[in-house]
Model the fold of this input.
Amino acid sequence: MGGLFGRAALRRLLGGPRAPLRPCSGEPSWPRERTLVAVKPDGVQRRLVGEVIQRFERRGFRLVGMKMLQVPESILTEHYQDLQGKPFYPALIRYMSSGPVVAMVWEGHNVVRASRAMIGNTDSCEAAPGTIRGDFSVHISRNVIHASDSVEGAQREIRLWFRSGELLDWVAGDHQSCTYPA
Ligand code: IDP
Ligand code: MG
Done:
């Protein structure tokens, strides 16, 4: 038998011997990067916590810290210190204090940049469909989620929101060892 359906093609079709799969490396060799992600009060009230966690898990990132809290004003004023002069600042602090927030620290390759892409534009009408804000946010002042916007900012925010003992180092088990390439 030749042509389109040669022996090799037929063997592949029938599930015959194949080239061995490339072994997986387990852990990445590049430096670990972490970012702060927080489901804001509107996201918690709209039951979007699970949706957010699922998107980050499916993307291959590792959850290394998580807590639900009524955010103290001292944390909010430091967190949003760059926005203190903005006209929307008092409303932003009221919004962020209006109910519990779920704060998380996610770890992974380029997680800061990737998270920003996953959450989408600050303004809901500019946020692309498929992003968290593009799918769920109704207004710039109710935009469901926060994610740090730089590696330095992430380090500062993680120190502000979490004590070091609240963050866990854990290693992916065998079933997850293909998360990163060799
Ligand atoms: P980001 O959350 O996308 O990083 P920032 O400019 O850092 O956006 O603003 C922090 C938060 O302040 C936004 O997520 C949003 O909740 C709020 N905010 C920003 N701009 C406005 C505005 O023009 N009106 C109302 N709220 C705003
Ligand atoms: Mg920001």
